[in-house]
Design goal:
Helix content: 40-55%
Largest sheet: 4 strands, antiparallel
Shape: elongated
Order of helices and strands: HHHEEHHHEHEEHE
Low-confidence stretches: none
Structural class: alpha+beta
Number of strands: 6
Strand order of the largest sheet: 4-5-3-6
Mean pLDDT: 82
Strand content: 15-25%
């Protein structure tokens, strides 16, 4: 504990400066890491979030402790946490391939704001420790995440003239532990009979050769063609 800084824990001009500067430094450290990776929210954004959160927390404590007004010290901080959700949502993007990007940046913004709230309340240890842990997660654990194997999803378009062919395909995917994320079916009927088309978005859980998968689907009764879109 920082027992050698008792004056920095009370609401004074010195403590206000100490808390804002500490929050600024913590936000800058987190923001530098994000900026180095060209993320949407970078250096200045994290600084502003951390400073703003610290100021809000400091204001709540000042109103209650120094002004003696009957106010809840944590109320302003609670609104800050809610507002951070809206800021973080602006960094989350869904690509054309359906993948989601920006979740780590959004979580980092939220965590930086909470660290700022802790510093603004005078809990320097908690805010600084949170900043260190955020940096460790974003710097070190990102390497661990890259080593985790991710199997990309893809869409298979199948044309068939027998309804049972779709049941066979879905049962086959289930046996191979292939997750079906989306399924779209269209059909048409004429004098020659019925024709159906199914679009299956698949996410495998293991190494499965796509050509082997397609060949197996083409072998089902009623399947006319199967291609990866």
């Amino acid at each position: 504990m920082l027992s050698f800084l008792p004056s920095a824990r009370t609401i004074t001009c010195f403590s206000a400066v100490a808390r804002i500067l500490t929050a600024c430094a913590c936000g800058a450290l987190i923001g530098l890491e994000r900026s180095s990776k060209n993320r949407p929210a970078g250096f200045r954004t994290h600084m502003l979030v951390c400073i703003g959160a610290a100021s809000a927390s400091l204001t709540g404590h000042y109103i209650y402790l120094n002004m003696g007004l009957p106010a809840d010290m944590t109320r302003i901080g609670a609104q800050v946490i809610t507002g951070l959700g809206f800021i973080g949502a602006g960094t989350i993007l869904v690509t054309k391939k359906g993948t989601v990007k920006g979740l780590t940046t959004a979580a980092g913004l939220w965590a930086a704001g909470v660290a700022g709230l802790a510093i603004g309340a005078g809990f320097y240890e908690g805010g600084i420790l949170a900043t260190i842990m955020i940096l460790l997660v974003e710097l070190l654990f990102s390497r661990v995440n890259k080593r985790i194997r991710h199997f990309t999803e893809y869409t298979v378009v199948v044309r068939y003239d027998q309804k049972r062919a779709l049941d066979q395909m879905m049962r086959y995917c289930k046996d191979l532990h292939i997750m079906i994320l989306a399924l779209q079916i269209s059909g048409a009927a004429d004098e020659e009979g019925s024709m159906y088309s199914a679009s299956l978005t698949l996410r495998p859980n293991s190494d499965i050769d796509r050509e082997v998968l397609l060949d197996r689907i083409r072998a089902f009764s009623g399947v006319i063609s199967a291609e990866v879109n």
